[in-house]
Design a protein that fits this description.
The chain is of the alpha/beta class. It is built from 15 helices and eleven strands. It has a seven-stranded parallel β-sheet with strand order 4-3-2-1-5-6-7, sandwiched between helices. Strands 9-8-10-11 form a four-stranded mixed β-sheet, covered by helices on one side. Helix 3 links the parallel strand 3 and strand 4. Helix 9 packs across helix 13. The radius of gyration is 20 Å and the shape is globular. The structure holds nicotinamide-adenine-dinucleotide and magnesium ion (MG). Nicotinamide-adenine-dinucleotide (NAD) binds next to helix 1 and helix 9.
């Protein structure tokens, strides 16, 4: 039986790499649904190639374009964000690959969990925003969540077969695109500069998040929920070569690490195929990578990391607020509407003013998200 995938965010960086894997293994995978935000032309090309049952274009303005372009194909076309939550629930779907970016990923994950689907999760914002609720639902509905994020895939791989208590997780961090820039220069950073990541080619939002270390902060929160650990047991270590994808330290002092070439195809295929592994041509050469280096994070240059730890410790809707404010600020920065340092300032402004709702429901998260966006726009003095 082929594994039938609903791929959300198919036109993005993770989405396209997931399709590379499917393209190479037609005997193992079948695509039931493809979805895109607004890049309708790419969605149409993908639909023609993979012949899913349905496609969703989240941006409703392009519905007619997609419908007309696929008129001759036996493919249902839907539009709007609610359709994302519907297409994941069908009986023909085995696995939902959530490669959406941002808060938009939350509701489809929740819908898929409620139908006990397997979730291959790239959309870390799902767990940042609502980790408490999402993990509770996943347990209730016995929906497995397999991480695609490379650090979490590494930790997951290190934990296979282990029962002993952990001393800590060590999440590695490349340091992002501005790693070698002195702190004084950050105020003048342009989007173009921040978008040049030394190790990974990714979507724009996560590349900016990597440069501020908001991404690493989010990964700490993601790890806390996925692996059920307190903030104190999760540490972050700068490792510029990105060869060690993360590590686990056990109570006896043993440390396990997962290593390899930085390439997202590996964690994506592991999430899809676990407990099997894919046959891949990749051969890592230690001789060609003789130097692996490590350093502590500069907490003054990267205040976002401690803000994320603070949100994790506060619980409730704090991390949801951090996420919403960050989304607005990153979009504004990419559109040249604010400076680089305004990203973290926006997060701080929103966190200082937003109410932290404890034991939040899904509606509470939605309200906190809206409020954080309103606060962020207020700080940045931008309109909707
Ligand atoms: P991307 O920007 O390249 O792609 C995002 C996809 O989501 C696109 O298909 C886009 O059309 C769609 N989309 C965007 N906004 C949407 C909306 N509001 N409604 C519906 N669809 C929408 O992003 P990416 O780099 O592929 O990252 C996706 C997720 O994976 C993020 O959560 C990111 O943090 C995580 N992640 C990415 C990488 C990577 O290497 N790219 C690594 C680890 C984790
Ligand atoms: Mg990562």
């Amino acid at each position: 039986m082929k594994q039938r995938l609903a791929l959300l965010g198919s036109t993005g960086s993770i989405g396209c790499q997931t399709l590379d894997i499917v393209r190479r293994r037609p005997e193992e995978f079948e695509i039931t649904t493809l979805t895109a935000g607004s890049r309708w032309e790419s969605l149409v090309l993908q639909a023609r190639e993979f012949q899913p049952d349905s496609v969703v274009i989240a941006d409703e303005r392009y519905y007619e374009n997609v419908r007309e372009a696929l008129a001759g194909e036996p493919i249902k076309v839907y539009a709007g964000s609610e359709a994302l939550s519907q297409v994941v629930t069908g009986g023909e779907v085995d696995t939902v690959v959530n490669a959406l970016v941002g808060y938009a990923g939350l509701m489809p994950t929740v819908s898929a969990i409620k139908k006990s689907k397997k979730i291959a999760l790239a959309n870390k914002e799902t767990l940042v925003v609502a980790g408490e609720l999402v993990m509770r639902l996943a347990e209730q509905h016995r929906a497995p969540i397999l991480p695609i994020d490379s650090e979490h895939s590494a930790i997951f791989q290190c934990l296979i077969g282990e029962r002993a208590p952990l001393r800590r997780l060590i999440i590695t961090c490349s340091g992002g695109s501005l790693r070698d820039l002195p702190i004084e220069a950050l105020k003048d950073v342009t989007p173009e500069q921040a978008l040049k990541h030394p190790q990974w080619t990714m979507g724009a939002k996560i590349t900016i998040d990597s440069s501020t270390l908001v991404n690493k902060g989010f990964e700490v929160i993601e790890a806390a929920w996925l692996f059920g650990l307190d903030a104190d047991k999760i540490s972050v270590l700068i490792h510029p070569q990105s060869v060690i994808h993360s590590m686990v330290e056990f109570e006896d002092g043993a440390i396990k690490a997962q290593l390899g070439t930085p390439d997202m195809h590996m964690p994506i295929s592991f999430a899809l195929m676990y407990p099997q592994r894919a046959q891949r041509d990749e051969h890592f050469s230690f001789a060609d990578n003789p130097t692996l280096t490590f350093a502590e994070v500069d907490r003054v240059k990267y205040p976002a990391l401690d803000i994320a730890y603070h949100c994790l410790r506060s619980g409730g809707t704090a991390a949801c607020t951090m996420n919403g404010a960050n989304e607005v600020a990153v979009a504004a920065f990419l559109a040249h509407k604010c400076g680089y340092l305004d990203i973290v300032r926006t997060i701080e402004y929103a966190l200082d003013r937003a109410e932290n709702i404890k034991k939040p429901t899904l509606e509470d998260y939605a309200a906190a998200d809206l409020e954080s966006r309103r606060l962020a726009r207020e700080f940045l003095k931008i309109k909707e």
